[in-house]
Amino acid sequence: MKKPVFNVTDGTLVRGKWNHHAYHIVNKLGEGACGAVYLCRKNGVSYALKIGTESSRLMLEVNMLKKFSKVQGVKLGPSFVDVDDWVTSTGSTYPFYVMEYIKGDSLAAFLRGKKKEWVGICAMQLLSDLEHLHQAGFVFGDLKTDNLLIADSKVQWIDVGGVTAIGRAIKEYTEFYDRGYWGYGSRKAEPGYDLFAVTMIMLETVYPKRFKAQKDPKKTLQEKLKQAPLPSEYKKVINDCWQGKYYTAKGMKEALGQILMKRAHPAQTVTRKSLHHEAAEWGEMLGVTFIALVFYGISAWNLWL
Amino acid sequence: MNAGRLKQILLITDGCSNYGEDPVAVAALARNQGVTVNVIGVLDDHQPGEPQGLKEVESIAEAGGGVSQIVYQKNLSETVQMVTKQAMTQTIQGVVNKELQHILGERKTIEELPPEQRGEVVEIVDDLGETCQLEVLVLVDSSASMHHKLPTVKEALADLSLSLNARSGSNQFSVYSFPDPKHTIKQRVDWTSELSAIHNLFSRLSSGGYTPTGPALKEALYAFTNKSIRRDEGRVDPYEETGF
User: What is the pTM of this model?
Assistant: First the structure.
C-alpha cells in the first residue's frame, strides 16, 4: 500500500528504545507491503532487520516467528532475535524486529540451467516443511517464490507474515498463488490452500513472468498447464491437486516421490515405434500359426481317410 | 471482549461530487452514528497518477473514520478486500485503545505499549477481526464515466465476499448504486452473505451528468439505519438468504 516514510540508509544505526540493542544497517534486502528488510550487523554477526509502519502487523509476525522456533524441534522459518521500537532523529517512532539472516539464492536463480527433476525435488522439500507446519495447526498462507530462498540446496522460508491458524481466514495472499483467485476453492486456511500454492510455484518455474486470469480463470489455468513444458507426470500431480485429490502435504509429496524414483530407472516406457514393431510381430506369428494349423488339418484329414 | 457488529459503507467512485451536500460532512455524520466510511477511487488503466477530482476520496474516508485508496482498475479486487479488512482492524483497535485507556487510566494506545504486552494485545485484535460480525453497504458510483469499470467492480465484490466469508464471523453485504433519478440511490442487492454469482448486478443504468456523492452517502446511511430498525422489530430475519 503506502510506501514507508522512514529513511534508512546504509550505515544508519538503529537503536531500540526498550532493549537498547543497536544494529548497523548494511544494505536493503527487500521491500514488502508493510515494511522493508535490511541486512544489519551487531557485534560482527549478520542479522535481517525488518522495519515497518504498521505496528500491529509487525507484532503479529513477531508472534509467529516466536511460535515457529518451538514447532516440534523442526526449524520452520528464520529464528527470532529481537523486537523493539526505533526513535529517529526527527522524533518519529517505527517498530522493528530482528531475525536470523538466511543467505541464499532465489528459486529461479537456483533452478537456472538445472534439469526439470529439480522442480519436483524443491516441491517435495516444500511439502515436507508444510507437513510439519500443518501438523502444528497452521498454514503458510502467502506461499510464493518471493518468500523462499534456497540455501545449501534446501528450500527455506524467509517471510512468515502470512502464516494463519487452520480454520481462520487467510491473512495475506498473492493472486497468482491464491486458489480463490483461480476459482479452485475458498480463502479459508486449510492444508489444501498451501498445496495449491505449491502447484503454482511449480508452474512459475516454466512461466517466470506469471500470468493473469482471463474471463474464465479455471480455463486459463487448465490451458496454461496443458502448454507448460513440464514432464507430464508432474502435470498430472498438479491437476490432481486442483481437483482436490490431495488432502495432506504428505499425500502430494508421496505422489511426487513416486515420479522421481521412477525416473531414476532406465526407460521402461514403450515407444510408438516398438509398439508398431510388436504388432507386426504378432501378425507374423498369427500367420505362421494359421498355416501350421491348416497343414495340421490337412494331414489329420489325410490320416483319417 | 466482544467487538460485536461492525458497520461499514464502501464507496467506489472515479470522480468528484458535484451536486448536493458535502460528502465529507455526511461521512463525519456516519462516523458519529457508528458507521465507518471507506472510499476507493478507481483510475482508468492508462490514467496518470492522482488526478485532481480524486482528492476528495481521502477527505471523505478521513472524516468517516475509514480507509481510502486510489487504484488502477486491475488492482481493484485486491484493494477492496484489503481496505475493508484494514478498516475493520482500525475500528477494533479504536475500541481496544479505549479499553486500554480505561484500564490504564491514561492516554495510552497499543503502539505505546512495550513490545511484550503489545504482542498480546494485537493477538486479541486479530481474534476479534476474525470473529466479529460485519455489515458492508457497498455504494457504487455508476455515472457515465464509471460504466466500463462496472464489470471489474462486480468481480471485485465477488472476491470481497470470498475473502470475508473465509472468516469465522458472519458477513452481510448489500449493494447500492447512484445516481438514481427517483431516490438518489438504487438498491441493487438486498442484504446477503454471498456476492458472487449475482447476475445483472448493474443493469438498466441511468446516466445523468451529475454525481451526488453527498446525498447518496446520506441515503446509504438511512438504509443502514432502516436495516437496524427492521432487525429490532424482529419481523425480518436479516440472515435470510435472498434469491436473485
Answer: 0.85
